[in-house]
Each structure stands twice: as structure tokens, then as C-alpha cells.
Amino acid sequence: MFTVAALYHFTRFPDPAALQGPLLALATANGVRGSLLLAGEGVNGTIAGPRAGIDAVLAHLRALPGCGALTWKESTATEMPFARMKVRLKREIVTMGQPDVDPRASVGHYIRPADWNELISAPDVVVIDTRNDYEVAIGTFEGAIDPGTRSFRDFPEWWQQNAHRFHNKRVAMFCTGGIRCEKSTNYLLGQGVENVYHLQGGILQYLEDVPEDQSLWQGDCFVFDRRVSLKHGLKQGDYDSCHACRRPISAADKASPLYEPDVCCPHCATEYSQDDRERFRERARQMRLAAKRGKAHLGQLQSLHDAG
Questions:
Q1: How many CB atoms lie within 10 A of CB 17?
Q2: What is the pLDDT of residues 167-204, one digit of tens each?
Q3: Which ranges constitute the DSSP H helices of 63-162?
Q4: Residue 150 pLDDT more than 80?
């Protein structure tokens, strides 16, 4: 059994590059894999490994200047959900593309999972899912608005086009673990929205804390690793991922005539050229050969996206 830790922390790192090598070396030496992003604004990512290894990496991170208050969300996986350990330098630890947004300055009101249902059921509250469209497609909160964005960078433009719909409303926002809401709520405050809230700990904390029979969550929660989705109690869901487009796919998707294992699914059947498909087929062949040798091909274990 592997421990999986999802984390983020906004703080000032004057020289993120100086942190990269020691962090990668420590994680690798302790059998930890996953993806961590470092930027001038902080750290974000998801890692998996043995209990002792995860504890070592978390202790290292919390010892960094300004990271003493770093928190994380834990779950488990029966198989290692990542191929390797990556520590990458980025301009932002979650990309919004708004240089004036700074969660260290101000964010919305944190709402505990136990109080979330009451808030989002109020008639003067609008609930906005800040995640990407493929994440929302497999699960969201009852009555939540889906902006239909392909990436978080698209959210500010969507807000500018739709802000008039939410005049005189309180705005409640949520995401997987909380990091996008740190930025999106700061952005809305900068746009003059006075009453902004977000789900503390994100969907993952809600699914762990709130009993299923009291839950307003519908479906699964998409996660950026080999598990693909989680249910209440943070149990692994029933979704797989398309090896071509990385979108989550259900049993019904696999039954579609547009589905070819490792090559395409109903969501991306028209998005790739024949050359692309031949390349995907060759990758699948290499994965099968690696499996016969008792090894995991990197393409098989590759995380779906960078953390965030």
C-alpha cells in the first residue's frame, strides 16, 4: 500500500532553482515518486511512496523558509500511481496567467466541509466549479455551474463574460484540493466581488469528511494520477484514462465503436491524425513487450498531467 500526499503552499521562494536538486534527490532516495512544481510563489504537487518516504519529503518541505504551515491531503493507492519523480520549475504553481493575483494577500472565506452543504443550498449563493471541463464531466456538486474551461488559464475570461449573471450573489467556489480556489477567490476579490467563499481542503476533504448519505456531491472526483478518480471515503473510482487524450473514460466509453484501447476514445476520436494513431499503437506494443519482461513502460505509468 502506498501513501499519496497532495499538497500546495503559497510562500515566497527567492531562488526556486536552488531547492530543486536537494528535493529531487531526497524523494528519489526514499522511494517517492510523483510531481512537484516549484515557483517564486511556492510549491504544489502530488507524491506517492512508502510511509517513511512521504514523511521524509514532507518534513523537508516544511523545513523550507515560509513552509512551516504547509498542509497536505493524504489518500492511499494499492499500486504506485506515478512512473518517476519530477521536480519542475514553473512561473506559477497553478497557472492562471494573472500577474496581479496573489493568494498571500487575500483569499475568500474558508468553509469547512461540514458547513459546505448549508452554504451552497442557500438561495443567494451561486456555486462555481473552477476545474477543467474533463474533470467536471465525471463529477461535481449538485447545482454547480460548469464554466466549461479547457484550462485554468481560461477562467478569468469566462468570469469577465459571465460576471453580470451573479450580481448581488454570494459566490462559493471549489476545486480538487483547494489550490485553484486560492487564486480564483483572490481574483474575484480583485474584481470587486465582496462575498466570496471556497471549500477548505477541496473536494478531497469533503469526500473524506462528509458521509455519503449526507453528501451533495454527484459522481467521482478526477485526480491527476493512475487512479484516475476517487469516490466517497477516497476509495478508487471506476474510471480509466484514455492513453491518447488522457481524459477519463467509463465502461460505456469503452463499449463505444469509437474506442480503441491505447489509441483513442469517443472523446478524442476526431482529434488525432492517422500518423498519431500509428504512433499510439506502437507505444501500446512497447508497453506490452515491457509487461512481458516484467517491467512497466513509462507510457503506462505516466501521470495524466502535471500536478495542479
A1: 9
A2: 999 999 999 999 999 999 999 999 999 999 999 999 99
A3: 113-120, 133-136, 155-162
A4: yes
Cβ neighbours of residue 125 under 8 Å, at least 6 residues apart?
A: 119, 169, 170, 171, 172, 197
Contact (CB, 8 A) for 56 and 62:
no
Whether the pTM exceeds 0.85: the reply is yes
- Could you tell me the residue ranges of all domains in the chain? 2-89, 109-219, 246-301
How far is residue 88 CA from its own chain's centroid? 16
Residue 268 annotated as catalytic: no
SS (H, E, C) 112-133: CHHHHHHHHCCCCEEEEECCCH
Amino acid found at 23: L
From the CB of residue 125, how many other CB atoms can be counted at a distance below 10 Å?
17
The one catalytic residue in 175, 242, 264, 265 is 175
Reported as a pLDDT band with limits 50, 70 and 90, residue 291 is confident
Question: Domain 109-219 falls in which CATH fold?
Answer: Oxidized Rhodanese; domain 1 (3.40.250)
Instruction: Please name the fold of domain 2-89.
Output: Alpha-Beta Plaits (3.30.70)
Could you identify the residue written with the cell 455551474?
145
3-class DSSP assignment, residue 81: coil
